[in-house]
Amino acid sequence: MAAAINDAERRLMDRFREAALAVQAQVRQVTDMEEAFRYAVAQTRRHGGRTLAVPGWDPESRLLFSKWCPESIGLLTSRLRQHARDIHTAFTCAELGIAETGTLLLNSTCEDIRLATTLAEIHVAVLPAGGLRPDLASVERHVSGRLEGPGYFAFITGPSRTADIERVLTIGAHGPRELHILCLGGGT
Amino acid sequence: MATSESHRQYRRRLAAALGNPFLSGALDRFATSYLEARPGLFQGMDLDGLSRDLAEARNAALPLLGELLETFTAHAKQAGAKVHLAEDARQANAIIASIAHRHGVRKIVKAKSMTAEEVFLNDHLETEGFQVTETDLGEWIIQLRGERPSHMVLPAIHLSREQVARLFSQVTGRKEDPRDIQALVQVARSHLRQAFLEADMGITGANFAIASSGTLGVVTNEGNARLVTTLPRVHVALVGIDKLVPDLAAAFRILRVLPRNATGQAISSYVTWITGCPGPEDGAVLKKETHIVFLDNGRRALARDPVFGQALRCIRCGACANVCPIYRLVGGHAYGYVYIGAIGLVLTLFYHGIDKGRALIANCLNCQACKSVCPAGIDLPLLINRAHGRVLGSSPIKPLKNVLLASVLRDRRLFHFLLRRASLAQRPLARKGPLIRHLPLFFSGAHGFRSLPVLAATALRDRKVTHPVQGKEPVLRVGLFAGCLVDFVYPEQGTAFIELAQRFGVRVALPLEQTCCGLPAMMMTEYETARAVALQNLEAFSADRFDCIVALCASCASHLRENLPILFRDQPDLAPRLRAFTEKVLDFSSFAAKFLGLSSRSFRGTARKVTYHAPCHLCRGLKVREEPRWLLRTAGLDYVPARQEEVCCGFAGSYSVEFPEVSARLLQLKCEDFEATGARLIVTDCPGCVLQLRGGMDRRGSRMEVRHMAQVLAEEMVRPAV
Questions:
Q1: 3-state secondary structure (DSSP) of residue A130
Q2: Which of A24, A149, B228, B347 reaches 20 to 30 Å from B667, CA-CA?
């Protein structure tokens, strides 16, 4: 029985990964939050970024982040409007993922999450174990619950893109140029 | 009236667009890749089912717009948004300007919104002294150029990378490289980032307004709408009331289809659901405000209209433009006003008035390409035709051609008498051959792009062609609906059919009281005349009991089957008689494939190389696709499909007379595609297409022949023992 469930989950994960890769997102498995956070730091460094915004996390996580964060990277935890011009990386936690389309569901009612995920160059999002759903129909109830206002709920599928010049697909129009999805625990 | 563009002026504008090779090249590549990618995106999905559900759900919602608006307003207000209703464009602009004034706004950033285009919001805000910046890349480009969008989803599709690079060089003051599109996009990104940060107010549209929660749904790719709704202290959404849906399930139903049909994506990069006014946390310095301005501008009246109401099912995917053969040649600036493509032709009349749509509305081939990709199942060709009727009806004087057509068509004897006389009158022009190459002076010029056929010396109806099958009872009794072109221009197509059918023991009768099918009358919006000739035909075919009625012209067949029930919708007493007739109507290929018991043994198997032209009213009208190809293969022909064999040849009845320049270009493209196959013979199922293609090939001096399927099959038959 357990094997069957794992099988179904693995198939869901494969489908999610395939759909996300098809829209130029990057997907990788991480074992714990520390690995996820260090990955976000590494990505920031790779691009020569100086800041890492961690909006919407609980106080315990924020405490751990400040412990793990190297001194060379500025950790932005709140009041992101003051940093609107210098948010390099956004590190967030998705609620669910849709396997069919490689989509992340991110509650963005907290304004700092919106600011970080719209202004950042790179978006690194954690997808908790067991958070995958097969298709749009299967998240309908969840999303309905999130429409109780006031609220701002986002479906994010791949990095920002445009095809407005000669229909040539170009990544990074206004939003993040890269989207990294870190699947936490589970499945393995 | 003074502001209305004349047909002649409009034709000049079309000719100018036809002279832009980049435009037609870009749009053609788009249409080709769109049509290739589309089936894959809906793979495993029941597209027809989805489309039906969508249409039903929209139909159910339209009469309830008032209630949906009330429910939405209550929920959105509770969640902190302010909701307004604008009756028309003027009011919408005034409301938005006053919000801006009240908040001391100077700079405004905008995300893409067709509704804002509809009311010319930018023009108004700029006159009021605000600085408005479009932030969608395509919209920004055309704003810098002082243009309007030429496509609902890809507003700058009419521009080349060189044009964009030149434009951006002016913005940055350094030379931008047209080869590096990534760098061009970067120019917009960094330039507009500043605009986002400085703006006091952000304006967006919305794809959905969910009544049950007061939520707006916004579908985007670039991420600019997320910045526009987040950064400035005031957010205003301008939303057509047709975007109201009862609940999230209804929005999801549209979302499953919209990005797939619009841009070929399973889902767009961002879908954002905003309920009320999700401001910053308590205690923040900035106070956020959200205003939702609903726009009526004729929508509630349209929703009540029994014919045109279905136009409000539109989900603004733009697919009807992508596949339109005319749009593909001339682009959105010449094929629409604010809203473009097939839906644009209709909406222009309702949202911008008859004068703005007068010249446009006649520019439709009725080729059904738009209808075949509309995910909301809108009968766009029919609506365009009805809208054309409204335009003509709004004018005190009917065009002379309508008056003539109406009076001549209703009197079969007069009509056929005139056709016979015309045959005599034409002879001096024709010299010896079957084609007229030199039109009288007043017709040449734009109309000389194809040779015209000579009317037959003896019409089909004047030939003694239908003999009873000797000896035994017929296996099938068929009534031949000849149609005017076969009867008077190509009687040889009729005789080929009769001989073929009789060889298989089918008895063919040609009822002589039959007349024009009425499609030309319907296309010219002479509905009374169309009904009158339909009744004559019903009468003509009622004397004998036929197993089926075969039309050699795909347009006649499609008209008789599909349009008659629409024309007589208000006469339910006629329905049983009508159904008995329409159900028996078949196009030639369907008939031959189904009833003649053909197999490869019936044919000589010459392996002659042929190509095929799929008539619009056969492949999309009647949805007959397999049968003609099966016939070609069974007949042992070497069938080489041409590129885009289902695209209209540009004949479209009187269209080729009204818009000769467009018709000529469509014909030219078709001829090139056919010649590229290396075949010598084009087979088709419609005498109208034969007329157009043969005339075009003759003009080009090409040796390619064009023949009706019935003739080709008759030629390929095993010869009976003498």
A1: coil
A2: B347
ipTM of this predicted complex? 0.96
Q: Do B274 and A152 touch (CB under 8 A)?
A: yes
Q: What is the mean predicted confidence (pLDDT) over B78-85?
A: 97
Contacts A–B by Cβ distance under 8 A: 184
B185:A143 CB<8 A: no
* CA–CA dist B720, B500 (Å, integer): 11
**3-class state of residue A133 by DSSP:** strand
Q: Tell which residue, B503, B483, B504, has the closest CA to residue B494.
A: B483
Read off the pTM. 0.92
Above 90 in pLDDT, residue A63? yes
Nearest Cα to Cα of residue B291 among B96, B78, B71? B96
Q: B463 falls in which pLDDT band (50, 70, 90)?
A: confident
* B696 contacts B450 by C-beta, under 8 angstroms: yes
Report d(CA A179, CA A121) in Å as an integer: 9
Chain B residues with beta carbon closer than 8 angstroms to that of A123: none
Q: Which 8-state DSSP code applies to residue B329?
A: H
Q: Where are the alpha helices (DSSP H) in A76-175?
A: 111-119, 140-146
As a whole-number percent, the residues of chain A with pLDDT over 70 amount to: 96
Give the list of residues 6+ apart from residue B513 with CB closer than 8 angstroms, or none.
B412, B536, B539, B540
* AA letter at B79: A
Residue B513 DSSP code: T
- Which residues fall within 8 angstroms of residue A26, CB to CB, at 6 or more apart? A20, A178, A179, A180, A181
> For residue B81, what pLDDT band results from cuts at 50, 70 and 90?
very high
Count CB atoms within 10 A of the CB of residue B191: 15
A114, A133, A147: which to substitute to probe chain B, counting the most B Cβ within 10 Å?
A: A147
Q: Which residue of B has its CA nearest to A98?
A: B267
Q: How does pLDDT run across B190-222, given as a tens digit for each residue?
A: 999 999 999 999 999 999 999 999 999 999 999
Nearest to A165 among B30, B184, B223 (CB): B184
Q: What's the number of CA atoms in the CB half-sphere (13 Å) around residue B10?
A: 22
Residue A171 has pLDDT above 90, yes or no: yes
Q: Indicate the Cα dihedral angle A132, A135, A137, A142, nearest 10°.
A: 20
Buried residues in B276-311 as b, exposed as e (16+ CB within 10 A): bbbbbeeeeeeebbbbbbbbbbbbbebbeeeebbbb
Q: What does the pLDDT average to over B47-66?
A: 92
Q: Minimal Cα–Cα distance from A83 to chain B, Å?
A: 11
What distance in Å separates the CA atoms of residue B229 and residue B223, rounded to the nearest whole number? 10
Tokens 């064999």 locate to B645
Average of per-residue pLDDT across A156-163: 96
Angle at B701 between CA B632 and CA B23, to 5 degrees: 85
Predicted pLDDT of residue B427: 66
Q: Phi-psi category of B493—alpha, beta or left, where left has phi over 0 and alpha has psi -120 to 50?
A: alpha
Query: Is A68 at the interface with chain B, CB within 8 A?
Result: no
Give B333's DSSP letter.
Answer: H
CB atoms within 10 A of CB B685: 32
Q: For residue A187, is pLDDT > 70? A: no
Break chain B down into helix, strand, coil percent, rounded to 5.
Answer: 55, 10, 35
C-alpha count within 13 angstroms, C-beta hemisphere, residue B611: 24
pLDDT of B287 reads: 83
